[in-house]
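Milestone M4 deliverable, item 7.
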Amino acid sequence: MRQIVRTFVSGLVAALPLIVTVAITAWIVSLIADYIGPTSTVGKLLSALGLGVTTSKAAAYLVGVAIVAAAIYFLGLIVETRLGGWLSPMLNRLIERVPIVSSVYGLTKQFAAIVDLKGEDSIKSMRPVWCFFGGEPGAAVLALLASSKPVRIGEADYLGVLIPSSPVPVGGALLYVPANWVRPAKDGVEQLMSVYVSMGVTPPKDTA
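Output delivered:
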């Protein structure tokens, strides 16, 4: 009986990553369908855009999605030109004058800057570092350097480091530590993420 249970647990552990992946994917698809599916409020608006082209509800929804996607792509083209560099600051100043809307817009803008693949403020621009608490040698933490520009606190320079949480590295804590506690790590961001996702089972390659 014990051998049967052990074999079953081994199979469950082997299948667990696939089960979790399928469950999370299904949840995301369901969430997207609830918010922008054909029966949602946004979906009805998309269908209304396409009703001028076709009378079929399903086709109208797809046409509406295509129209919005084309508009977003066109906006991307504008942003990448000099005109975008002129319009963006003007739009920011306009929205920042609206009390409540400005707070929501500012928070959304900060999040967009983080996920921007080519922006200077994206996670890709952060550099992995070793942070030695108390100085080297000391307790070492693999972290992300938020900015190479030090912050002056009192008579010392401090650097902001983001310490991810495990196993969900998109969260964590932002700490300002003395600049001499920080040493660049040879590992890339992807390696750092894999270390935290595996909860340390995958060791960092930069151990020298």
